[in-house]
Amino acid sequence: MAGPGEGRGEGRMSEWEPRIVTILCNWCTYGAADLAGVNRLQGPTNFKVIRVPCSGRVSPKMILAAFRSGADGVWVSGCHPGDCHYISGNFYARRRFTMMRALFRHIGLDDDRLHFSWISAAEGPKFAATAREVIAAVRRAGPAREWGKTRAQVV
Amino acid sequence: MTDYTDRLRAAARRLLGEGRVDCFIGYRRGSLPLAAQPAILTRAEQADSLIWDPSCGMNLAHYAVGRADRIGIVATGCVSRSLVALALENQVARERLYIVGVPCTGMLDAGALRRRFPGREAAAAAYEGPRVTIAFADGNEELAVAENLARPCRTCAHPNPVVADEMLGEPVASPAVPAVPEEAAAAEARSAAERWAYFCEAFAHCIRCYACRNACPLCYCPTCFVDESRPQWVGKSSDPTDTRTFHFLRALHLAGRCTDCGACERACPLDIPVRHLTSRLNAEAKAIYGFEAGLDLEERPLLDRYRPEDLNDFFK
Amino acid sequence: MRTRYYERDAFPPAVAELRRAYRVFVPVRRGDFHAFAEWDDSVRPDFDYRKTRVPPKGLVFPQSERLLVFSTDERDPEHDILREAPKDFPPQAVVGIRPYDAMAFRVLEVNFDTPEVRDPWWLRRREATTLIGLARADEDATMFRTENYAGPFDERGLDVIVYDLGRGYLAKALGEKGEAALAAMGGDEPAADALREVEERIARAATPELPAGRLRAQPAAPELPTGRLRAQPVVPLFEAEFWDEVAAPCLNCGVCTFLCPTCWCFDIQDEVRKQEGDRIRNWDSCMFPLYTLHASGHNPRGKKTQRVRNRFMHKLKYYLDKYDRGVMCVGCGRCVEACPVNIDIREVAARLNGFGEQVERHDR
Fold first, then answer.
1. Domain 4Fe-4S ferredoxin-type: where (chain B) (predicted)?
2. Model pTM score
3. C282 contacts in B (CB within 8 Å)?
4. Residues B51 and B143 in one domain
């Protein structure tokens, strides 16, 4: 069985472009993405953006569903700790992400595939820089074949 | 252990007889040797059917969920922790529980016995103190219970009930607990690709019977994510990706809630190491947050609270 | 009827001969348990096994099977039209299947092969399957006899019966499929003493003598108590008070149903990815609340007791009444062995069978 690590380096293949599911908080990072766009800071089209009301809304099943549906990487981003629109949503989210990430690493998920950040609505340049960083990391990791379900493997 | 059986019966008889509780949850003798069956008694005269021995491994807290009456229940360390966790999540009411605590020296692992005596079938079992005698068709074998414990019991950090209304015995010492459970430590030594291969193989023969989920006292959702259809998070076929997704999510739903009783692994008909994932999460919760589930009725569950200074190092 | 004899070591190579014409499934050890697996170079058959953990039911009725395919692409002139999933049903031989698991297919067929409905996937797999059974008197203490399992030498469900004589195996064909398989396996005519030994073993098994001590913790009868079930009126049984007590320890997991060689329930799901759709049939379990959940949200079997009652009533009463082919159970004991809370069908059958009699029940 091929391990997830074995995809590494395949990103250099000419046609393959990483597909990255990006889950963004409406009140901050989504705005930062907007700002980055207005300021023409971002070019890549690798992201499928999902807007959520708060990073606290993000459940592990969304992240697994993204990988299962063929994402090569997932990036979740919310407001800086202390700046949550709902006071504490991202504080709860942080604990949940910490446990989730620990489990995913343990079962062999490449660190380059799962990313978290805090980006405020004013941080357009940070958004653009982080986006480039995430794309580069997922490209390093290569296509995530083992996590995706193409078609049910049944008789 | 016989001692505890007598004391347990007396306690149940008294509680039911005096009307302190409406039911009493314990174990009775099963139809197979090495099996105990959870039983819910409602009359004092049924008390003599209760037993207590190292076959009483299934977590009884499961049966306290969703009951509106006053419940008497016999609890070891892990059962009491499950009850605490359930009380914190409003699934049982502490004031309607009467917990009869038993200091626990560990439960037998039927799988270990199978491996120890391959092809031989136990006909009967008798427990005497720390030893068990198992009758096979071709002769008896006497074993130390402590050497044939179920995996979670071998590293149990809380063998004594953390909360009880009465205790049937003096507290016992816990076995030496390694910081990281042995299976997880072995897994840690492997590379990420090897771990992935290990989990793929480990779950490859899962039949999706959900015994692991249903045996867990903390799995009480009225609709489990595997049964949700809009959206459908997990496919229902035996596709390996879907099967693994079920196991990963099941474990994550227990993050900061699992009391490591091992009911999931005990219930699995195929000996799949389903507890591996949850015990790994338990170790992480302890290492990162110093948290263990179900120890304190005043302490909110791990994921139901936060500190501003919580670990933040992997956020960009 | 062709009979053949194989020395112990010559048997696996004879079975291997079948691989030229069949996909051959054999018992293999997997961890603590055995399972049927296709015999390729990565597995080693173990014919000394006693029981597989998961029954070989799935070789004819797979846990998950793609039935139909469709396209949702509207540019496709045939979009949204269901077509049969293309697949082959090559001849397969299940070698080493035990008589109870073979009989299970006869119990199952009333659901898939009826005058009104003939399930094409079941029919073709069943037709392509040759059951080469292993007969050895090694029943364990969780097993019992029913109308659909007469004991370790029951040949009713088999195409070939292979008697394990210790030093070797004696195989007897039981029909056309069996003749063909045995011809492919080669082997010698058995000597008279081997035939005599088979007779003796069968005679001995007719009056089973259980090793001393074995049944100490067991109900005394190796026969499932079902004699009075046919005459029991169904409604009082349904309304009997004991169901709550039977169901109390149940976790409502699917172990008993998924490990049962005679449970046939399934659910059908469509899975669509991009514009390609699959209609997949999956095993289902009457223990799951979802099994009976209506689209309205109403659940006619919303309570645990109702589900437990349905499982046992189906096995022990409804099947019996509807088909007149005995109870829906071949006595393999898997549910008894693997139930996490030790719910024992023998005890439930005794309650049903004895219902209405003033039998004194005392707690075990």
1. 249-278
2. 0.93
3. 236-238
4. no
